[in-house]
């Protein structure tokens, strides 16, 4: 999966595809064993079946989420995925008494509470997750993963105080696996960002920078971004020096995996260059990250959450426009258009969550019209077009939504975080066009 997400070269896609195909073929062979073998022990059959359901179900579900260009390649090498079949297998596995039942449950929770929110614009089935978690927490009240998923469920519902409580329970439930604490701290960081509690989120961001080895570049940039959200007058002289130091360190830790840089790390490095080009300043970088991590949909759950973020964006937009008017006689600074486009994209995205589609469209269409004047942040335009498409979806304008999504998919390339947006476009088009768009045969036989 990482091969497909991070490396778009044909060779890597074929190599990764062949490995996945071999693994999937093993699960299909296990399926044949399950159906053809004469089982002497019913308990052995039940345990084996739960593993087959987990494997086939997870493969079918995840492969169905991949963008069309990848799916066509997979079909070429004889591989296929079917979402409905995958969900059926996982649900059946989650209801069994087999030892992989827990893995089936965790896969379903992971899909509905994480994958749906990261790779698509859809909501997961939160009621289904509620029922699953009630049963699992009754059986495993201190289960670290189930406590975590309960926190995630409340987070996705927009119940931020409850989310904080469950994430902290999960974090404090064990000390054997310290890396799991980092996962909880990541979530706690963003919950506090949505609450606009920058000081509290800074504590978790600092811990991740100092203790986690996953991506020092992303962690360092996240910490610096949160510090940028505070007024400079609220930062001590030591903290201001720390902020500059963090921005200088971001590029030092950039990794290459299989010869490729991670897209989010490249994005962070570009932003640090902008920070110094603008005399140690960035416009709302933590809000930009919240948008890119697809957390804005949570804002729509509670008006006060959205209103708080909206006020910050509006304040920065007014400040930028006032500064431009003062300098009306002199040329704009190199990044003024990019900064304004970013703020308008965020404003439009928030207004969509606040059910103000006409105002949102006005902001987003302005972003699209600025494409030729953008210096660096070319990603803003295709992301704005997808936001426009989602407004059309909300209004029931299906054909216009499809046209906008196809426009974003076909007419823009080479921008930051392109693969991330293509996943979301793909899942949106499947929803709008139906199964005919997937054109994927069932993969469980």
UniProtKB/TrEMBL annotation:
Coiled coil: none annotated. It comes from Culex quinquefasciatus. This is Tetratricopeptide repeat protein 39B. It comes from the Eukaryota. Pfam families: Iml2-TPR_39. Signal peptide: none annotated.
């Amino acid at each position: 999966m990482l091969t497909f997400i991070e490396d778009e070269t044909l060779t890597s896609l074929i190599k990764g595809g062949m490995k996945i195909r071999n693994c999937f073929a093993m699960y299909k062979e296990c399926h044949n064993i399950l159906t053809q073998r004469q089982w002497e022990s019913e308990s052995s059959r039940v345990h084996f079946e739960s593993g087959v359901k987990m494997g086939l179900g997870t493969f079918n579900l995840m492969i169905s989420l991949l963008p069309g260009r990848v799916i066509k390649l997979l079909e070429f090498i004889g591989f296929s995925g079917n979402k409905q079949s995958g969900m059926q297998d996982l649900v059946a596995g989650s209801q069994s008494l087999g030892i992989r039942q827990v893995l089936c449950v965790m896969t379903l929770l992971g899909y509905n509470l994480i994958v749906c929110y990261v790779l698509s614009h859809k909501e997961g089935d939160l009621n289904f997750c509620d029922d699953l978690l009630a049963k699992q927490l009754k059986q495993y009240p201190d289960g670290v993963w189930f406590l975590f998923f309960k926190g995630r469920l409340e987070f996705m519902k927009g119940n931020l105080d409850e989310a904080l409580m469950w994430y902290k329970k999960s974090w404090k439930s064990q000390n054997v696996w310290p890396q799991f604490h980092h996962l909880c701290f990541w979530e706690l960081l963003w919950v506090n960002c949505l609450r606009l509690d920058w000081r509290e989120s800074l504590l978790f961001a600092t811990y991740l920078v100092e203790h986690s080895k996953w991506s020092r570049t992303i962690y360092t940039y996240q910490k610096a971004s949160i510090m940028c959200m505070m007024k400079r007058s609220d930062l001590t002289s030591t903290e201001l020096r720390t902020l500059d130091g963090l921005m200088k360190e971001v590029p030092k830790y950039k990794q290459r995996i299989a010869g490729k840089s991670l897209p989010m790390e490249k994005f962070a490095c570009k932003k640090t260059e902008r920070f110094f080009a603008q005399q140690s300043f960035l416009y709302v970088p933590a809000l930009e990250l919240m948008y890119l991590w697809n957390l804005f949909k949570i804002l729509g759950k509670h008006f006060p959450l959205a209103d708080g973020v909206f006020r910050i964006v509006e304040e920065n937009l007014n400040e930028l426009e006032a500064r431009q008017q003062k300098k009306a006689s002199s040329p704009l600074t190199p990044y003024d258009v990019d900064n304004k486009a970013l703020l308008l994209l965020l404003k439009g995205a928030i207004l969509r969550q606040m059910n103000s589609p006409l105002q949102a469209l006005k902001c987003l269409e302005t972003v699209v019209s600025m494409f030729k004047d953008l210096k660096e942040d070319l990603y803003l335009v295709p992301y704005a077009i997808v936001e426009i498409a989602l407004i059309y979806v909300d209004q029931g304008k299906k054909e216009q939504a499809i046209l906008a999504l196809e426009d974003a998919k076909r007419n823009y390339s080479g921008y930051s975080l392109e693969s991330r947006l293509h996943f979301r476009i793909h899942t949106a088009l499947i929803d709008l066009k139906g199964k005919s768009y997937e054109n994927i045969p069932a993969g469980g036989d």
